[in-house]
Design a protein that fits this description.
Two copies of one chain form a homodimer. Chain A has 296 residues and is mainly alpha-helical. The first copy, chain A, has 14 helices and two strands. The model of chain A has no long low-confidence stretch (mean pLDDT 94). The interface between A and B is large, with 56 and 56 residues.
């Protein structure tokens, strides 16, 4: 297996899926649809949709078409959260993935509305799937996981704790809460949704949640490391932004060496869990290695 | 029937429903939950939930408990749209319903997040209902109407056209688009959802959509009239804000007299449609009169 080729193929497929689900830009509200397309189709590693798809395969799923609305909805929700995070009242970021952020290109009002529109549209996509599916309950269970993990007990909850603590000293417990909800929740939802769609039992769904939790934490700590050691060219946004924003991170609390070691330990543990499953998915294991040792 | 007493009873019931569905304020994300409760439980006419409930009764619905999650979700979505509309980058309003707006009390970042959280939570509530219901498909059909009418082809689309045209001259066609989507869409969704939950046929659902469209338009024109003729004490927010924001409205295009006459005509037409139904709902008809001749 050539991992990079396989990854590119998957990203290209997801880009096509996203393009097909997004509304065309037309009518008096055209600018918000343009902003939606600009932000969603502007690159990105598509980690969460890939995790949905690969976990679905790992858990024995066969009809890959049922994962597509969830892959699209997940990426739309992830993207809306980035648009709103980048707003002047939040992180005030001018660049994302090497391009101007949405509010910089379209203005702040349209930035806010494009974020709202993407969150809303994610549920439009999913509800259509629930209506059309022969197994509406299963689709609704997967959708409820997405909603819960995106909301005030998931991503938004983590983002809130992050925002209100910016510039303040953070202890390990509060930092863990932020990492677990802000970054972890959508990764957990992705793997859980893959398992639910493949008709997994509750034990397997929980195992996928735990695995994803470790991946999410490793991914976030790697992000903190890159903010300190990477270049803008490599990571597509300004480096040292944590220092600029006086952010407490795992790295500022524990140092680079312990951070690297924590990432390795989390990554191994997640891979061990995946190896305990009946089926194998080599690409998924390579993906975890890639996510946790990546340099961008 | 004493309309005002009946209205108060219904509002009190909806306030209880909202209070019971909203998450408690606790944990590291407490502030966003407080902001959600502050904005949702701060009064309001609860028009949209009432329309869901009364249309459900008009269409022969009996088990009122199934309307509650939809009443809550609808009001949460309406409230999130107000929070985001009031932000500095949008209308920059300091008062709403006679109280400070959410971003003024909790800061802009938490205002944005509380809006996101309410939109997200609306779908958490609805998806739970879809999972638990014996008729998941029906619930999903009602939910899909809510999602569609809230999104880029509904409320958000109208809000976008409104925002990007602020300060610019508007023709009648564009103004109609904005009224129909920004104000009309959620009113239409409310009456359609009531009809869907009561197992109405497609023809009845369409009739409710048309009726609601007239009510929404009459309601918006009445709002424009009040902005010109009301006092801050009466309407709970600063008057003459349209003039301040150089907004084109039905009133600025057509004058006060024609506006009053248009409201009367729309109101009569909506009432005629309701009177064409097999069942009667006197409260609903009184409500339409109240909404279109209100002075606050």
């Amino acid at each position: 297996m050539n991992f990079n080729v396989e990854l590119k193929t998957r990203i290209a497929h997801i880009d096509e899926v996203l393009n097909s689900f997004l509304p065309p830009a037309a009518g008096y509200q055209q600018i918000v649809q343009e902003a939606m397309r600009y932000s969603v189709l502007g690159g990105g590693k598509r980690i969460r949709p890939i995790l949905i798809h690969e976990t679905y395969l790992l858990c024995g799923g066969r009809d890959c078409s049922i994962t597509e609305p969830f892959m699209a909805a997940m990426e739309l929700i992830h993207t809306y959260s980035l648009i709103h995070d980048d707003l002047p009242a939040m992180d005030d970021d001018e660049y994302r993935r090497g391009r101007k952020t949405t509010h910089v290109v379209y203005g702040e009002a349209v930035g806010i509305l494009a974020g709202d529109a993407l969150l809303n549209y994610a549920f439009e996509i999913i509800l259509q799937q629930i209506i059309e599916s022969e197994d509406s309950k299963k689709m609704a269970r997967a959708a409820a996981i997405l909603a819960r993990k995106s909301g005030v007990f998931g991503m938004i909850g983590g983002q809130t704790a992050d925002v209100v603590n910016t510039g303040l000293p953070l202890d390990t417990r509060k930092l863990d809460f932020i990492y677990s909800l802000k970054t972890g929740a959508l990764i957990e939802a992705s793997m859980m949704i893959g398992a639910v769609l493949a008709d997994s039992d509750d034990q397997t769904i929980s195992l996928m949640e735990e695995t994803a939790s470790e991946i999410g934490r490793a991914f976030q700590i790697r992000d903190d490391i890159l903010d300190l050691t990477g270049t803008m060219e490599e990571i597509g946004k300004p480096v040292l932004s944590d220092e600029k924003n006086k952010k407490t991170t795992f790295v500022t609390l524990n140092g680079l060496n312990e951070s690297e070691s924590e990432v390795r330990s989390l990554s191994s543990s997640a891979i061990d869990k995946l190896n305990s499953m009946d089926r194998k998915n080599d690409f998924l294991i390579e993906l975890i290695r890639y996510l946790t040792i990546r340099n961008k």
